Amino acid sequence: MHPYRTHTCGELRRDHIGQNVRLSGWVHRKRDHGNLLFIDLRDQYGITQCVIETDSPKFHEVEEIRPESVVTVTGETVARSDDTVNLKLSTGQVEVTIKSFTVESMAETLPMQVAGGQPPGEDIRLRYRFLDLRREQMQKNIKLRGAIITSIRKRMTDQGFMEFQTPILTSSSPEGARDYLVPSRLHPGQFYALPQAPQQFKQLIMVSGFDRYFQIAPCFRDEDARADRSPGEFYQLDMEMAFVTQEDVFGAIEPVLHGVFEEFTEWKVTSPPFPRIPFREAMLRYGTDKPDLRNPLIITDLTECFTMEGVTFNAFRKAITSGAVVRAIPGPATAKRPRSFFDKLNDWARDEGAPGLGYITFDEAGIGKGPIAKYIPEAAQNRIKELAGVGSGDSIFFVCDQPNNASVFSGLVRTRLGAELDLLEKNSYRLCWTVDFPMYERNEETGRIEFSHNPFSMPQGGLQKLETSDPTDLLAYQYDIICNGVELSSGAIRNHRADVMLKAFSIAGYSADTVEEKFGGMLRAFRFGAPPHGGLAPGIDRIVMLIANEPNIREITLFPMNQQAQDLMMEAPNTVGAQQLKDLHLRLALPPKPKES
């Protein structure tokens, strides 16, 4: 017999009754029933109930075992009595009578409970992550993550993609988030950077003559944590394709994402082709470039209605003359809501920094009521109802501000109303593409032209458009894929020509020498024949988080950091010795400690 196990703790069934078996695992629970002592033994595969009688010579040894100790049990598989069958367990029709019992590793008193109950605070969970990972939900989440990655790999290779690994030690990039830097021992004063993404390498793979590349790529960014973003490191499905258009990229990734969501959930999933929403339309209709299509509310521009004859709502009319716009968000079937409903929304709007939230309610006869209705004559009210698609029994909420601010805040109102009115489609994953991003934007403070999204994207219209158009009118072949309002990935058809790249960067204020210095490797490659190419990189962590229906990315990550980018379990970051600093030619210049008050 094997020294540790003949079966796993999730394997025994009625077919095994009468067999002598050996199991190893963790003591999940102990239950003393007087003349019998029950132990639930757990491993990755399940739980098996083991039982020992008080007259057994091993009883006292079993009685003293602490939860989460690792033990080996040898005994006979027997049927449970009808009144003790547990159909919630795959092994719930049998149990093992303990004949031999070996303690492989005794656990100390636990700092947190593994079996049952609410998990403790985050600091305890992260400091004792190895215990936290033993909990049923965490086991389920991490196994799900592994299965999803395996499925993605198969779906990519089935389409002819090859998996490569790109370097981890590379050069610092001036774009994006802060780099993590690694000092070089052999080159004093010089640093490697951990890659924020394999962006340049995957483009160089295409230039090297490979047609379809992917990897489950580790990426490193020194940025603050959020619920959907880990500090420090994360993983993405990095992919690139040669000789493709934007639609070719969509056609390759849509079956992968649709298939994965459909494989691992019973929720409804958007079928390919996913909706394509131009950036400017997304900002107008949804108030965000990450629209949650589960929310049926559509934002409408009603600026014209507040310039119609007879409209005397001067707060909006004056703002419009200064370039403001009016955006409206419908509130279906809310006209009969109590005044407190509207007051609560107004208070929320003020908390968000807005002066308030104007609104009109339409009674059963379609007559407008509310604080600003008296300033808007019937003809203008009818035009509002027509454009916004509202009618009797509905309300409509107004946002008046400069275009960018109006878009963002009306998007917040749309989200708030969708949640408040419980309008979001249940049990569904709604995917879409945001396309046609602006290539550039003007910095409102400095007036300078800056890249608005990805500087390595191909401008729509190529070099001719760069040379003849207002930069703020230029669109790029850039796209984001969104699921339920969460951005899974940004991507683009890449700029594969050195002359176009130099011109694009010059418009954003980069000299040719600067571009040569920072991106010389890319430029050299482009000058020796580069195919048109494009790709994207959906975030693995966010995909798993959505499928697991978890609100925080730490719930689907093996060993995450806390909000302060600290690994409490491994105590990182920490200090290093003087000799290590000397080897790296480094001297610390720490900020002064704050004075004690």
- The beta-strand count equals 24
Overall shape: globular
The order of strands across the largest sheet is: 6-9-10-24-23-22-19-12
Strand pairing plus helix content: what structural class? Answer: alpha+beta
Q: What is the helical fraction, as a range of percent?
A: 25-40%
Report, as a whole number of angstroms, the end-to-end distance: 68 Å
- Spans with pLDDT under 50 lasting ≥5 residues? none
Quaternary structure? single chain
Strand content: 15-25%
Q: Largest sheet, if any?
A: 8 strands, mixed
State Rg: 31 Å
Summarize this structure as a short list of keywords or feature phrases:
597 residues; alpha+beta; eight-stranded mixed β-sheet; five-stranded mixed beta barrel; 24 strands
Question: How would you characterize the overall build of this protein?
Answer:
With 597 residues, this protein is α+β, with helices and mostly antiparallel strands. 28% of the residues lie in helices and 23% in strands. It contains 16 helices and 24 strands. An eight-stranded mixed β-sheet has the order 6-9-10-24-23-22-19-12, with helices on both faces. α4 (136-158) runs antiparallel to α6 (246-264), α4 packs across α15 and α13 (498-507) runs antiparallel to α14. The mean pLDDT is 95.
